[in-house]
Amino acid sequence: ATVTALPATCAPPKSGADDLRAGAHSPVMKIVVLGAGAWGTALAINLAGRHAVSLWGRDPAQLGAMSAARVNERYLPGCPFPERLSVEFDLQRALESADYVVLAVPV
């Protein structure tokens, strides 16, 4: 038997797409993802479907390229950033008003 893989999608979930109750809305939270590798970028893209997300990384040159291109070509090419996803260079500024912090760095 031949198994055909389905194409992966980079699109974040549409707001309200998985709500079971009509009219149910979650409040928009400010989430910071620390770690701009493949895993952190994928999490940030997904979370930005419903929330305001800042993505922080340790490499200023990479962050500058990501911010300009609105995609992480190094670790997750072909997956554009949603409107609610911003790239943050300054860790303190990223964390200032965060509701949640996601740690997505190797340990």
Q: List the total number of helices.
A: 3
Query: What structural category arises from helix and sheet content?
Result: alpha/beta
What is the chain-wise order of helices and strands? Answer: EHEHEEEHE
C-alpha-based Rg, rounded = 15 Å
Per the principal axes of the C-alpha atoms, what is the gross shape? globular
Largest sheet: 4 strands, parallel
| Residue-averaged pLDDT | 86
User: N-to-C terminal Cα separation, in Å?
Assistant: 40 Å
User: Which percent range describes the beta-strand content?
Assistant: 15-25%
Please list the strands of the largest sheet in the order they lie side by side.
5-2-1-6
Q: Give the beta-strand count.
A: 6
Given as residue ranges, the uncertain stretches (5+ residues, pLDDT < 50) are 3-7, 16-21
Could you state the oligomeric state of the chains shown?
A: single chain
Helix content: 10-25%
Brief account:
The protein is of the alpha/beta class and 107 residues long.
Kindly describe this structure:
Helix 1 (38-47) links the parallel strand 1 and strand 2 (52-56). The chain is globular, with a radius of gyration of 15 Å. It has a four-stranded parallel β-sheet with strand order 5-2-1-6. A two-stranded antiparallel sheet has the order 3-4. The relative contact order is 0.24. Helices cover 23% and strands 23% of the residues. By secondary structure, it is an alpha/beta fold.
